[in-house]
Amino acid sequence: MKTLTKLALVSAMAISANAMAAQLQSLTEDEMSAQTGQDGISIVIAGDIEADVVVHDKLGYNSTAATGGPTPARTALGFTGAAGTTADSGAIVLDGFSIKDTGATKKGITLHIDADANGTEPVLNVNVALPDELTITTGDIYVAKSGTVDAATAAAQYVDATKAKILDNVTVVLGGATMNIQLGNAPQGSFITLGGTVTGGVTLSNFSILAPTLTTTQWTALNLPASLTQSATDRGIHMSSISVKSKDSADLSLTGTKINIANQGLVVSGTSNIDVRIKDLKLGSKAGTAALGDIALLDLKVPTLVVRGH
Hints:
globular; mainly beta; 10-stranded antiparallel β-sheet; 44% strand
């Protein structure tokens, strides 16, 4: 996420700098006078964001429960190497990540930034509005042995020969949502407040979690019937789409969702109940097995979510 944040900020700065230069060259005295009384900063990220993303887990799997990590020992799960060393560091690789404005009218991602005295509790308010249709593409997702975050090229960030594909490219389509961020103080009662309605809900298309290929020794030790094999490279859990909508609605309302930072991590709360629909669920080879059918999870209560490292 830090990589994406930096990329977005750099893109926004470059776009706004070019736009400001162009406008300053063309403003007449009358046009400049018309701007009297205008303040605050508006930034429009008008272009697409594309990047290869590498997330480094610098110590790999660490079984030290005192740090909030998982408790089974490495050896119990079949890992090699000592725990908590850089030799165990792995990387999550998103090959072909992108964020694009795919709406009929290109509006871009708009940021409105204002500093407010708010009595004696000053606030920097950043309002973020998404375009009518925003398409996020993850690219194929791999796990690999980590290189170094300081490497000059994406290829050197991880050891390509070791990478194993874990997820097919996933496309997420959303839009129409807003996000209000407050820094310094938070009169809105949260660090980030989400709002707006995502028309048609949020849809994840072509979702596949790919299964690892066991060694011959491991597969034989399972003592399975000879009719069961693992030769196909597309084995896994597959869904043609996953849609998320508000309960009994054709859309997804984000009103009431709040994001805050606790000592223990990032906290997401206040999301209203949702309906989740899974289409064409397949288990096994994506190309070689029939679908089990469709699944609906209705009136699903969304729990508080805490995201942190360990």
